[in-house]
Amino acid sequence: MQITKNHIEAMNDLLKMVKPLIEKRQDDINSTEPISILAILAGSFLFRSFEIKLNNLNPGSVINIHSELEQSKEKELIVITQSSLELIDIDIDLNTLILTNQNIKQKINFIDVISKVQEPALQIMKNHNLTYVQLAQSAAIATSYYIQQSEKYTIEEGFKTAIYYYFVGSRTCPPDFAENIFNKKLYNPIKQEANLNKQNLRPWWKFW
């Protein structure tokens, strides 16, 4: 995997996108909330790259990931976060971290979060010509920025929060994008066929 200029530019835009969501209260900036938001976004866009059929799934439904490829992509987000921290001389032992029994202190609602960020994130993805996977990678880099920011939690606590929400995002069905909902309403073959059939039943002298 290669980090490109587009990745970095998208990461900067993601940080700008998240800032208004957390700057209302100073405690939010120093909490793990921005980590949670960005990690959910990263996981959720990774989920979309799996191209799982969502016909029978409601937003918020949790799925099981069985494919080795999908699991490797999930782990890649963790490795990207670790590598980003290493660039600023912060070393994390993943094996020790994963084995550490630590509860997530601040839990947030998946649907509430993803509903606020997925539309602007989609636009950022398009602006920088990225795929879902690449946007997820940019979000993972952005997550590492907040992991090393606060004095109220340790690096390990922040990283553990990121890992938790990477998996929440990558294994939970998100709401559809607004443009997809609009297109579905604009063109619904079943509804159109029903309207045509109804028209066929009308007497020829009625034009309404």
Task: Describe this protein's structure.
With 208 residues, the protein is mostly helical. The protein has one domain. The protein is built from 10 helices and no strands. Helix 4 runs parallel beside helix 7 and helix 7 (132-147) runs antiparallel to helix 8 (155-170). The termini are far apart. Residues 189-208 have low confidence and may be disordered.
Give the arrangement of secondary structure elements:
Elements: H1 5-22, H2 26-29, H3 33-49, H4 68-86, H5 94-99, H6 110-127, H7 132-147, H8 155-170, H9 178-186, H10 189-201
Helix pairs in contact: 1-3, 1-6, 1-7, 3-6, 3-7, 3-8, 4-7, 4-8, 7-8
Strand and helix order = HHHHHHHHHH
Q: What ranges have pLDDT less than 50 throughout 5 or more consecutive residues?
A: 189-208
Global morphology? globular
Please give the number of β-strands.
0
State the major sheet.
none
Q: Rounded to an integer, what's the Rg over CA atoms?
A: 21 Å
Helix content range of the residues, please?
55-70%
Structural class: mainly alpha
Task: Provide a count of the helices.
Answer: 10
Strand content: under 5%
Cα(first) to Cα(last) distance is: 59 Å
Quote the average pLDDT.
82
Write out key terms for the chains shown.
208 residues, mainly alpha, 10 helices, disordered C terminus
Summarize it.
The protein has helices at residues 5-22, 26-29, 33-49, 68-86, 94-99, 110-127, 132-147, 155-170, 178-186, 189-201. The chain is mostly helical and 208 residues long.
